[in-house]
Design a protein that fits this description.
Blueprint (H helix, E strand, L loop, with lengths): L7 E4 L5 H12 L3 E6 L3 H13 L3 E6 L5 H15 L4 E4 L14 H29 L3 E6 L3 H4 L5 H21 L4 E8 L12 H7 L12 H11 L10 E4 L6
Parallel strand pairs: 1-2, 1-4, 2-3, 4-5, 5-6, 6-7
Helix pairs in contact: 1-2, 1-8, 3-4, 4-6
The structure holds NADPH dihydro-nicotinamide-adenine-dinucleotide phosphate.
Length: about 250
């Protein structure tokens, strides 16, 4: 039987980038996936079509997960469609990079709302149905190595990603007795729209401090998420696991 047969997974920001590859891998292993998107409707529909072509089950649901009501509606639509929710992957994220001296309030709020408040919003909506069903659950929050070590020009992003780690550990303690695990995944460098802003020179330079000497491939995040989402990871909770080629060790 497939690793995730019978499971229902919601992945936020899954129309493109890392989220999309996570959704595809979860579906490949038998989960029914809800592909949340905010603006990328065409990409999300394409992701759904690609999963269905391979025999998987997927639905695209639009929601700005930074907005409390829209996040609640995302989880409600999932429950209306698939009756339960077993796996929540909080992946949606953004950047507004600039030094603190030039960072404005809007840049701070957008990053904190999109990256951190969204995690609160979606967990708040998903935990109660998981607890009521008494079948356990999996929550996987996508943080970043920047949340562990900081980065000049990313005080907002680093704060949001470090916030996710504190949130993850706290919620893991709250819901552990219900067999709901809550873990964080901290990626290093992966080629997506988020990292496109880096110059070719800086991308090359970054490899100097990656022990494995290369950027990661998107499926290398997805494989870890699929494992954490599975029954095989039932005894792992409250952890931050880096997928970073050894940048932080
Ligand atoms: P992308 O920019 O490629 O994708 C970002 C995703 O987030 C898109 O699917 C976007 O959806 C979604 N999103 C943004 N805002 C919202 C919102 N308000 N509501 C719903 N969805 C939203 O970035 P990545 O794939 O690289 O990033 C995915 C996650 O991985 C992020 O949390 C990021 O911080 C993290 N990460 C990435 C690293 C990397 O090297 N790429 C390294 C470390 C962490 P839409 O297009 O529909 O708006």
């Amino acid at each position: 039987m497939s690793l995730l047969a019978g499971k229902v997974a919601v992945i936020t920001g899954a129309g493109r980038g890392i989220g999309r590859v996570i959704a595809e891998d979860l579906a490949l292993h038998g989960a029914k996936v809800v592909i949340n998107y905010h603006a990328s409707a065409a990409a999300a529909e394409e992701a759904v079509a690609s999963i269905r072509e391979k025999g998987g089950e997927a639905t695209a649901v639009q929601a700005n997960v930074a907005n409390f009501e829209e996040a609640q509606a995302l989880i409600k639509t999932t429950l209306d469609t698939y009756e339960h929710i077993d796996i929540l992957v909080n992946n949606a994220g953004t950047t507004r990079d600039t030094l603190l001296m030039t960072m404005n309030e809007e840049q701070w709020d957008t990053v904190l709302d999109t990256n951190l408040k969204s995690v609160f919003n979606c967990c708040k909506a998903a935990v109660r149905p998981m607890v009521r069903r008494k079948q356990g659950g999996r929550i996987i929050n996508i943080s970043s190595v920047v949340g562990l070590v900081g980065q000049a020009g990313q005080a907002n992003y680093a704060a949001s990603k470090a916030g996710i780690i504190g949130f993850t550990k706290s919620l893991a303690k709250e819901v552990g007795s219900r067999q709901i695990t809550v873990n964080a995944v901290a990626p290093g460098f992966f080629s997506t729209a988020l990292t496109e802003v880096l110059s070719a020179e800086n991308k090359e330079k970054s490899k100097e401090f990656i022990p494995l000497g290369r950027w990661g491939e998107l499926p290398e995040v997805a494989y870890l998420v699929t494992f954490l989402a599975s029954d095989k990871a039932a005894y792992i909770t409250g952890q931050v696991i880096n997928v970073d080629g050894g940048i932080v060790m």
